[in-house]
Amino acid sequence: MEKPSEDLHGNAPDNSSVVLLLVDVINDLEFVGGEILVEHALPAASKIATLKERLRSAGVPAIYVNDNFGKWRSDFRHLVAHCLDDDTRGKPIVEILKPQPDDYFVLKPKQSGFYSTTLDLLLEYLGAKKLILAGLTGDICILFTAIDAHMRDYQLILPNDCIVSQDMNENERVLKYMERVLEAEVKPAEQIDFAKL
Amino acid sequence: MEKPSEDLHGNAPDNSSVVLLLVDVINDLEFVGGEILVEHALPAASKIATLKERLRSAGVPAIYVNDNFGKWRSDFRHLVAHCLDDDTRGKPIVEILKPQPDDYFVLKPKQSGFYSTTLDLLLEYLGAKKLILAGLTGDICILFTAIDAHMRDYQLILPNDCIVSQDMNENERVLKYMERVLEAEVKPAEQIDFAKL
Amino acid sequence: MEKPSEDLHGNAPDNSSVVLLLVDVINDLEFVGGEILVEHALPAASKIATLKERLRSAGVPAIYVNDNFGKWRSDFRHLVAHCLDDDTRGKPIVEILKPQPDDYFVLKPKQSGFYSTTLDLLLEYLGAKKLILAGLTGDICILFTAIDAHMRDYQLILPNDCIVSQDMNENERVLKYMERVLEAEVKPAEQIDFAKL
Amino acid sequence: MEKPSEDLHGNAPDNSSVVLLLVDVINDLEFVGGEILVEHALPAASKIATLKERLRSAGVPAIYVNDNFGKWRSDFRHLVAHCLDDDTRGKPIVEILKPQPDDYFVLKPKQSGFYSTTLDLLLEYLGAKKLILAGLTGDICILFTAIDAHMRDYQLILPNDCIVSQDMNENERVLKYMERVLEAEVKPAEQIDFAKL
Predict the structure, then answer these.
(1) DSSP alpha helices (H): ranges in A32-110?
(2) Taking CA atoms, what residue in A is nearest to D182?
(3) Residue D31 Cα distances to C7, D107, D163, angstroms
(4) Does position C5 have pLDDT exceeding 70, yes or no?
């Protein structure tokens, strides 16, 4: 359409060099292995919620980077409603991490949040340089997203108590990998020094 | 997250070699020049609605490819509601072209529907080879989207009574340009031969 | 491979907010219509060479953004050699615009210099904000590249005596289009005010 | 430029559902750790050369997907010459794996062969469905490239005697990871059943 003003194409209202990415936390977990994953994800969800609040107070925006679950027609709010209303395995996690009105969201069709989505452009408009990644699973969607972020020169902070996988040993190995190869800062959420961000 | 099955990453339920793209029809038109554009867009909206119904009967899916209007937090259904409920200039058009439950939608941050969106991947999963473009404006978002489609080897069909711009002479020139350079088929909607699609 | 140091992945030695893009000037012009195009391109080539020299003195790098002509195996220097040694229609133009050792080059498989190439990343590493586009043809590869540059928020400067098409009336119309829609600065090369770049 | 014929934009002469990607084999290895890597890479180079010959006989094309080593001005043949002529650590490997005239090549600015390159489009034009990855290093550039290939729905074959890293234990772990998560077929080169490809 006609470009009436700068507002209509691509501007984001916020500006922040640090951004929190919440990966696949809006999730019904209704798949094989979901019953194990939920046990790891539930305590992490509380840690993530605390981190999100601290970051919000510090003016750091959050982006829900979430699977579209093959449902290209649905939207994000529909996904939230499905997890809550249909009494799914993921319900207690979604209750803890329910998006607030000023959160952003990006639906991803594949594992990496950057592949075939608008995430990179949104981060550019936000002025992001450092990304804090939290959510599930550490060994797949977090890893794929972190690799893509690293190639785009974002610095990575990985709160290891906010990232889970079905196999927590593999989760640990992949966190070490990301520390070594992606130069990610890996530490518990409460040790993230906001003054230095 | 864990990849429980093929369903969760990228599959689309439909399969169709022809796809209808509705560009920026969900639009409040509340910008300078919008009062002129609405006069061209309203009769076109009826033609588009008729075309969309014919295509639906033939099993051709429709994708709303729509500006996010700088509001990265909003979703598509919210955008539809805003146009309808806030009594905007675009309301009569949106009433005619209100999305149906099985329509797809892609929010674009810039003029081309392919830039920084998942459109290309969705079209690939649908098996699309030919794209019918309709909406506004012919000389900007339709042109940009058509150029990107051409570079990706999609064949283009442009129903010229379903594409409008603020300046209809420029609209005409750009349609001719797309016919010449992008090898687009340009003709009134009712002359599109569905048997040959 | 192992990442031994920052040097190996993506660093560019230069830094410049202005960059000159030379579009499809290394061209044998051995196609239908090439005999007309060469007549428009030859005088423009001299203007481009002068502009390139002035920009070089001012520290502005040049990137040859050039068709690979469907020959994915060839490289850029091979293409230059072909145009010169095989006594092609494009030879006099290539002689005038022969690349120098410190010029960059990007081979593009399609019309836009940004599509399926590394151009955007190279420009980011160079720190480019403004692009000066010169070459051929104005109504196709220059237009497609300019549209993609505009969506990526680059400012555009189009020296109209350095841009040619087969049909020079169409060339003129497309330059006006880019002035209106892409907010490009269109003027003769010698009127580009280097102090203000 | 003008589009004279279909030949000039994007066509590739070959057609093959299987393609061999040689990752970072043209490499001077002149970096910290290169002296260890060369010991693992040299025996692998012979295996890769044998595999490449077998595949060539079967009509499977090879693409050198290689770091540009931060030298955006250089081209691939220049890189080959540097490794050979400057008596680098990588010389014996490059001698074994010297590209032949009908090999393709893609220079990548970062670790993944798909990021900011034309690889995906080239593979599409070749009609590739299955990719055989060989080269270095397994735990970085091969992994990043394999992840991107998997998201693009390519099937992966990883000849484990043709893939090396500085730390061969980590190489082994990453191969297992790719088998599990990317559904890659991991086996010695000579066990790849060409009849079933």
Answers:
(1) 34-57, 76-85, 91-96
(2) A140
(3) 11, 19, 19
(4) no
Helix axes C168-181, C143-151, angle to 10 degrees: 10
Q: Which residue has the tokens 């090396």?
A: D164
Collect all residues with Cβ–Cβ distance below 8 Å to A95 and sequence separation of at least 6: A84
Q: Which of A191, A149, A142, A132 shows the shortest CA–CA distance to A171? A: A142
**Residue-wise pLDDT tens digits, A75-92:** 788 889 999 999 999 999
Q: How far apart are CA B166 and CA C100, in angstroms?
A: 46
Question: Which pLDDT score, from 0 to 100, does residue B13 have?
Answer: 52
Q: Is D59 exposed, middle or buried (0-12, 13-18, 19+ CB in 10 A)?
A: exposed
- Tens of pLDDT, residue by residue over A101-141, are 889 999 999 999 999 999 999 999 999 999 999 999 999 99
Beta bridge partners of A158: A186
Instruction: Say if D101 is an interface residue toward chain C (CB within 8 Å).
Output: yes
Q: What is the pLDDT of residues C28-56, one digit of tens each?
A: 999 999 999 999 999 999 999 999 999 99
Q: Which chains touch B (3 or more CB pairs under 8 A)?
A: A, C, D
Work out the mean pLDDT of chain C and round it to a whole number. 91
Angle between helices D143-151 and A143-151 (to 10 degrees): 110
Query: What share of chain D has pLDDT > 70, as a percent?
Result: 93
Between chains, do A10 and C181 touch, taking CB under 8 Å as contact?
no
B153 at D interface, C-beta within 8 A:
yes
Residues of A in contact with C155 (CB under 8 A): none
User: CB–CB of A125/A118 below 8 Å?
Assistant: no
Taking the C-alpha atoms of residue B124 and residue A59, their distance in angstroms, rounded to an integer, is: 39
Q: Does B73 touch chain D (CB under 8 A)?
A: no
User: CA A106, CA A86: separation in Å to the nearest integer?
Assistant: 22
Place of tokens 């981060």: A123
pLDDT at A98 over 70: yes
Distance (Å, whole) CA A64 – CA D163? 36
pLDDT for position A191: 96
β-partners of residue B163 are: B135
Asked if the C-beta of B3 comes within 8 angstroms of chain D's C-beta atoms, the answer is: yes
Rounded distance between C-alpha atoms, residue C86 and residue C190, angstroms: 33
Q: Look up residue A28 and give its two tokens.
A: 């019904």
Residue written as token pair 């609405």: B38
Chains that touch D (3 or more CB pairs under 8 A): A, B, C
CA distance A72 to chain B (A): 7
pLDDT digits (tens, 9 = 90+) for D56-71: 999 999 999 999 877 7
Chain A residues with beta carbon closer than 8 angstroms to that of B117: 116-118
Chains near A (3 or more Cβ pairs under 8 Å): B, C, D
Q: Residue A154 pLDDT > 70, yes or no? A: yes
Q: Does B127 touch chain A (CB under 8 A)?
A: no
DSSP-derived secondary structure for C79-139 = HHHHHHHTT-TTHHHHHHTPPPTT-EEEEESSSSTTTTSSHHHHHHHHT--EEEEEEE-II
Q: Which residue ranges in chain B fall short of pLDDT 70?
A: 1-13, 74
Assigned token pair, B44: 């076109």
